[in-house]
Amino acid sequence: MQLKELIAYLDETLDVKAFRDASYNGLQVAGSDEVKKIATACTASLEAIDAAVEAGADTLIVHHGLFWKGADPRLVGNYYQRVKALMDNNINLVAYHLPMDAHLEFGNNAFLAHILGGDVVDYVEPGKKDSIGMRVKLNEPLTVQEIVAILCHRLDTKISVLGNITEDMMIDDLAICSGSGSFLLDDDKCPSFQALVTGDVNEQTFHMANETGTVVFVCGHHASEQEAINLLGDHLAKKFKLKHFATHFAYEKAVPTFAADPDQ
Fold it and tell me: Which of 20, 40, 138, 145 is the most buried (most CB within 10 A)?
């Protein structure tokens, strides 16, 4: 298919015009006019670009692109290396940020709801997809331990849990916001949801969780947003008869931890 046809379909499907976004959504680096094999990744890292090159992809579709409004536009250092790798291999870079968070079928939040066995009730601001976060009702209540087990397994990550937790606590009412979603609790002194699932949190989120009785599941920013983009790639491959290479980088699980030597 032609690149312009792919971009037009994605722009319409993800309803790009509905969002005020820091990302330049859509085509960020132009390469091949014809799309035959796509690769998908959470972030346009050099690792992801190299993987796309190795897979023989002509188009890389990501959640976190290279170009952001107000950011330093200079192509120096590692950003030069990323763009050079794309251009040397004639690879298109396509990015969708907030539209990928909010989509009810292919979005990051909807994916997290799905793996937990929940149905999206609405956006956190009812009817407003640009409020990004979602309110989710689980089909069956789960314990904190059960939620942790599901998230660890399906996202291939480690989970931190904040809040005052009891062994018999059952959860069925969630707010979900992938990436940096702790604002849903940080900015709400009287939250109406039992728990929040997100990627990363602020310092004050620890105190808000304890003081409001809200359980917070911290998955890691990348882990919370790594899989939905691959599902979008599967959809595009099936709809347009394209080849698809899905990347999987378990960064949060792979990060080493260091402790002080007690003998020092």
Answer: 40
Tell me the torsion sign for CA atoms 70, 75, 91, 238. negative
What is the pLDDT at residue 252?
82
In whole angstroms, what is the distance from residue 33 CA to residue 138 CA?
A: 44
Residues 91 and 130 in one domain: no
CB-neighbour burial class of residue 95 (10 A; exposed 0-12, middle 13-18, buried 19+): buried
Domain residues for 173?
103-218
Is the domain of 159 the same as that of 65? no
Q: Are residues 212 and 229 in the same domain?
A: no
Question: Is 70 exceeded by the pLDDT of residue 143?
Answer: yes
Closest CA to 199 of 166, 155, 169: 155
pLDDT score of 250? 83
- CATH code for position 213: 3.40.1390.30
Contact 110, 104 (CB under 8 A): yes
DSSP class of residue 194 equals S
Q: For residue 257, is it within any domain?
A: no
Helix %, strand %, coil % of the chain (to 5): 40, 25, 40
Confidence at residue 253, expressed as pLDDT on a 0 to 100 scale = 77
